[in-house]
Amino acid sequence: MLFKSIILIVALVTVYGQVPIPTRPDGFAVGPFDAHVVVEMYGDLICPGCKAAWPTVLKLIQYYGQKIQFVLHTFPLPYHTNAFIAAQGLHVIANVTNRDLNSILAYTTLVFENQQLWYNQATINVSMTEVLQSLANFVDKTQITTADKFIRGLQDDEINDHTRISWKYACSRGITGTPSFMINGVAVSADASWSLDDWKSVIDPLLATQRPSFTPSANDDCPTGQTKCTYAPHKTQCCLNGERCIPNVGCRC
């Protein structure tokens, strides 16, 4: 009987723990939907690491233009005060502007630039109502939308659900922290330290639609008979004879 009870509990957790299917693909996409390369960012608007990575992400979007698709997913971390409100605010902006990409990127950029206004200790003695109004007034000054429309959006149960589903979707992809990046559905070790050149070293070979060639340098610091494999920015291995250098993986047969 105990064994059957355990099975029932596991089954119930499985059913009720499933992620609701979004009404459309999750995230806010820039670029063609049939792009050969898709870069995804899971970000928290109140995360300092995301703020530090964002300027390079904007350079990435501008540099590649229509050659790639970039998708921003909201993943508010529970230990960043007001992170969920800021994330829901992005969903509000998407809703009131009919998913206008310029407005979505502008809101994201401006919240990052003024992150200190809502980060942890900054609002420790402020009520939730005051925080909501502070963010609404901020958005109103940016002229992306009005404070009234923004507040109404934050009170919209459907938009709240979209924000929750987006968070659950990220969890289902194995995301545990921010910023987290994927290229074509595979996690990469990108973070705020990556430059545009670092991104290019990974994306350009993929855009070439052929296996990238890794040419060892004359002084590759590998033993005789082995070749240097720079498989990701700042990550190298020495490949044995017969092994290939695979991007984001390393030396493999």
Automatic annotation (TrEMBL):
<dbReference type="InterPro" id="IPR012336">
    <property type="entry name" value="Thioredoxin-like_fold"/>
</dbReference>
<keyword id="KW-0732">Signal</keyword>
<dbReference type="Pfam" id="PF13462">
    <property type="entry name" value="Thioredoxin_4"/>
</dbReference>
<feature type="signal peptide">
    <location>
        <begin position="1"/>
        <end position="17"/>
    </location>
</feature>
<dbReference type="InterPro" id="IPR036249">
    <property type="entry name" value="Thioredoxin-like_sf"/>
</dbReference>
<protein>
    <recommendedName>
        <fullName>Thioredoxin-like fold domain-containing protein</fullName>
    </recommendedName>
</protein>
<feature type="domain" description="Thioredoxin-like fold">
    <location>
        <begin position="25"/>
        <end position="204"/>
    </location>
</feature>
